[in-house]
Design goal:
about 150 residues, alpha+beta, 8-stranded antiparallel β-sheet, globular
Length: about 150
Amino acid sequence: MLAALAGAGILAYVLLNNTGEQTSGSSGTSHSEAVTPKSGEPETVGNTRLVMSEARGEDPKFDYVVRARYEDESGDGYEIGIENDPGRTFEEDVADLTNPQTIGRWSCGTQYEMNVCMADDERGRVLLVPLDSDADLSTIAAWGDEFMEQLK
């Protein structure tokens, strides 16, 4: 498992590990608490709203352009990260997907037993991870499109 994680990129490792922890419980943020976007991300996307936003440089181990979590009223939602890592390419990330398929701008598939979607953007490499590990790839990609359209 560690060898696989080392090859998957830091962003995937962090998002997938954090999401795995979150699927068993609440994010710790009340749905009534306002969260201020720190990186230009929208406050709401579809029926989800921002419950966690991490500013660039807040975590010195990673070069996130955006790192955020969105949840709906039931606690389902998505975690999204956009990272600039000169030591890793988008093509390397996509090569790590099982059963890859292209849905619009997104390369989607399975990574660590979770459905995920990735995209290459001028801001960096985008990884979108649903909090529901069985989420449909088309649904993940559609949510990601809406997020990217609203990102400032």
